[in-house]
Amino acid sequence: MLKGLNHLTLAVSDIQTSIDFYQKTLGMELRLKWDKGAYLECGDLWLCVSLCDNRPYRNPEDGDYTHYALSIEEKDFDSFVSLLEKANVLFWQENESEGKSCYFLDPDGHKLEAHVGGLAQRLEWLKNS
Fold first, then answer.
1. Which of 72, 82, 86, 110 pairs as cysteine with 106 (C-beta 3.0–4.6 A)?
2. 3-state secondary structure (DSSP) of residue 95
């Protein structure tokens, strides 16, 4: 049976732009690049960026809450947000839930979140809300 998340594949419009964003801005490790894709690693996360010439840029205000959350330690959160701001990364939502989170876009408009905490903290917060 299923055991957990295996990997994420994101359709992107430009491989090198995506590699630069995920590797240089977000600090993921580039494992392999080829003409139409790349594999990057972030802790246990295996991320594939795959070239898709007709990738439409999604409007961050379209109401779609689909996004991908990445874990970050609280001690690193503020400097990470500053790094995103200095890189002129677009933010798509303010945090309204438990724990520190920032919601931002990659170069193709994929909605991402950097979140402090885990499932246990979220469940406790919801129980007490």
1. 110
2. coil
State percent of the chain over pLDDT 90: 44
pLDDT surpasses 90 at 9: no
- C-alpha span between 26 and 128 (Å, rounded): 33
Distance CA 10, CA 45 (A): 13
CA angle, 105 then 109 then 115, to 5°: 30
* Angle, CA of 102, 110 and 129, to the nearest 5°: 40
Give the three-class secondary structure for 89.
coil
Q: Are 68 and 48 in contact (CB under 8 A)?
A: no
Q: What Å distances lie between residue 5 and 8, 38, 68, 71, 80, CA to CA? A: 8, 19, 12, 14, 24
